[in-house]
Amino acid sequence: MAIKGRLVLTLILIVVFCAFPEAGAESDGSSDYRAVTGPCAFQFPRDHGPHADYRTEWWYYTGNVTSEDGRDYGFQFTFFRNRLISDAAKRRWPGPWSRWRSDTLILLHMAVSDLTQGRFVHHRDAARAVPGMAGAGIRDGRVRIFLKKSELILQGEEHRLQGSGDDMELKLVAVPQKSPVFHGKNGYSKKGNAPERASCYYSFTRMGVSGILEVAGRRVRVTGSAWMDHEYSTSPLERGIVGWDWFSLQLSDRTELMLYQLRRADGSVHPVSQGTLVRPDGSKKNLQKADFEVRVLDHWTSPRSGATYPSGWRIRVAAQDLDLTVSPRLKDQEMAGEGLDGIDYWEGSVSVRGRGGVDGREVSGLGYVELTGYAGPVFALQPEPMDESGP
């Protein structure tokens, strides 16, 4: 069971970027699931909910908040949905299919960075989607994803996050301050050369957030800013990609920047790596690999996994005159792979300073960075590759 749990979450994570016929998807001939192969015609609130025709999906929140007494915190709160068996396979199943024989796995990852105390606390859990235990659904425009006592509810403009874990708890309400941003071509976000190596991906890049955090018995009321990603897909990353570096940055001039770099085994960056710059008025500019440069400034080695992660970056987006230095607000924000899934990755709060804009003004900001594949390549458990052209 532990081996199966590791495999399931690895298959979830290797799609990290991260339904309906009109959602830009076609039938995937290699499986019983749908595949993302073109632009995603999002319709809300429907597409805030789960897309059971696709194998993998997640609702991902990160944020930086401050307590009433001036203490700084970062948080991550993520639900994963993974389909274990398709409807077509269920129709071939011998005998009747019971609702207690679940076809879906729900996973939760959550973490709080107590930046004042230099403490990082994280929790993860998983369960099959059976009544009263876990599930994901939408009814009358209200989305609910839950796992035991933790849940995410999206209704109207409010995103309600409630999570309970070892030595931590959060109860937060996030409200978008900008319209959703569709990455890539109307949400079609490529992760490889073949058309189906892709996901449907949108974000709320700036949300006001408030509520309560509890860490190690200390309960505080907080306010701040959050970022939300929602992504769904069927096909994993192209074989040969060992991991990725993902950045979500909120700048003081109300610009936001999302970038991801897909790393190959030889250290090179895959050419489909890309990003999105969101202007203060909410309009966006798609960025290709040639439009930005990410240079590592420092490293940190985990005392648990032994992995050495980048720990500081200089990011340049020449066409936008952005020159940013990104620094971890706490060196050790590693989600060490304890328990069910055994996956090691770094996910943490960062600060930003630099210059940007046509007048070269100074900007600052906060954000989150995710680093995978440094404790071992994520492709190690991938299925055999599909036929596809390109390098």
From TrEMBL:
Show which residues constitute the signal peptide.
Answer: 1-25
Keywords from UniProt, A to Z, are: Hydrolase, Signal
Q: Name one GO molecular function term.
A: hydrolase activity
Kindly give the InterPro entries that the UniProt entry links to this protein: AttH-like_dom_sf, AttH_dom
The highest taxon in the source lineage is Bacteria
- Every AttH domain range: 56-234
Q: What is this protein called?
A: Predicted secreted hydrolase
